[in-house]
Amino acid sequence: MRFRPTRSRRPGVDGRSGFTLAESLAALAFLAVVIPVAVQGVRIANLAGQVAERKVVAAQVADRVLNELVVTGRWNTSSQGTVDEGRHQFSWRSESTSWERATLRQATVVVTYKVQGKEYEVRAATILDSAQVLQ
Q: What is the spatial order of strands in the sheet that 79-85 belongs to?
């Protein structure tokens, strides 16, 4: 008695399913390009988030310092300092420049901060009438 080999009805047993070597290498080459681009995108998004977060705090520092300089009457002289907000340090400097009319002055506070080794700055300014402001 002779027995015939039976064929399986399951897909893939007959040797025709699966990925070829060329398909596998093409997928790996595709991933070799996509993964670095995705990582770079995440890094850029992280940097943008950190810059935006610190920019908000720097604007608050600039506003607070400018208001303090106006209230104390020290807005007409140049000064500088540092402010610690949480774990971050912000440096500021103030300057006063003449405006269009002789009695008007622009008081400006520039706050600088670093994110991942790069320096950024925020400016806050106001116009003051030096004839009416108490000094």
A: 79-85, 88-98, 104-115, 118-129
Q: Are the beta carbons of 62 and 54 closer than 8 angstroms?
A: no
Q: What pTM value is reported for the model?
A: 0.70
CATH of the domain at 76: 3.30.1300.30
Report the domain count for the chain: 1
Residue range 22-51, pLDDT digits in tens: 999 999 999 999 999 999 999 999 999 999
Q: What is the CA radius of gyration of the chain?
A: 33
Q: With a cut of 50, which residues of the chain have pLDDT below it?
A: 135
